[in-house]
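> call design_seq(struct)
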């Protein structure tokens, strides 16, 4: 469980339902970002670039963890607008911030869930990550190691990595200046060198597999499964006081039963009592 009962209670108490008409903005680029939105109805578009850089978010989607990677920033990284009539639960950032700062697992999920948007916003420094398809990218990032190194910690990136916040540099002899440095939103290529974090707060992902190796294995796996039917399972949600967080998916509280089919490659949320409900449904 990512959130403690106290943390979840604080989120539930602060959450407010908001409604938007088509074209209304949830937040605007460089404008104030004061809340995380959990979509419960309709479709939201995240405008992370040009015409071909719009990401659509539907039922259960969180808009957007990317704005929370740096808890000190109060500005939105991009514009999010309602494409249809939208209903969403808004969780104020002032409630989320203290949880983000002390709950390392929650911060890890925020970081990993933000890579798609950050890569699209910064294709120049994100390199190959910016061209990966969403499900493939999520699958690749899921196994990476989340780290928040201190200035004296040493890091290695044998399979590459990604710097979300702060910077990392190659360690060189005392008195010399490192020319190999990677800042925020930067892909770190595979290296056998030792790295150190910068003076500011640093957040990085250390990849457990080289990107080119993952892509080859991923392509082979999908070619073998091409043409085979993969059934998705509909999951019924009831009002719950405990939830778990998955990639870009969060259900805070719902008063009605509904169904949710996550995109391929993304895990289901685990809700207490859910397995029992599934067994009962399969028997009926």
């Amino acid at each position: 469980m990512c959130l403690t009962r106290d943390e979840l209670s604080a989120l539930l108490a602060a959450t407010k339902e908001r409604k938007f008409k088509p074209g209304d903005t949830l937040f605007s680029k460089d404008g104030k970002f004061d809340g995380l939105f959990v979509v419960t109805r309709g479709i939201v578009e995240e405008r992370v670039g040009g015409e071909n850089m719009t990401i659509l978010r539907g039922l259960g989607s969180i808009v957007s963890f990317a704005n929370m990677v740096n808890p000190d920033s109060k500005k939105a990284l991009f514009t999010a607008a309602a494409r249809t009539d939208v209903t969403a639960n808004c969780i104020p950032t002032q409630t989320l911030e203290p949880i983000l700062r002390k709950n390392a697992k929650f911060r890890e999920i925020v970081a990993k869930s933000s890579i798609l948007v950050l890569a699209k916003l910064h294709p120049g420094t994100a390199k190959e990550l910016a061209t990966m398809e969403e499900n493939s990218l999520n699958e690749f990032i899921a196994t990476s190691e989340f780290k928040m190194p201190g200035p004296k910690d040493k890091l290695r990136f044998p399979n590459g990595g990604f710097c979300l916040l702060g910077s990392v540099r190659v360690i060189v002899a005392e008195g010399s200046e490192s020319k190999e440095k990677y800042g925020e939103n930067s892909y770190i290529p595979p290296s056998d060198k030792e790295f150190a974090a910068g003076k500011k707060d640093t957040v990085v992902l250390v990849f457990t597999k080289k990107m080119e190796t993952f892509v080859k294995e991923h392509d082979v796996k999908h070619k073998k499964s091409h043409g085979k039917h993969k059934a998705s399972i509909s999951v019924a949600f009831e009002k719950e006081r405990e939830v778990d967080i998955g990639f870009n998916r969060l259900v805070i509280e719902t008063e009605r039963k509904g169904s949710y089919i996550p995109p391929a490659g993304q895990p289901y949320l685990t809700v207490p009592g859910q397995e029992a409900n599934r067994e009962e449904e399969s028997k009926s």
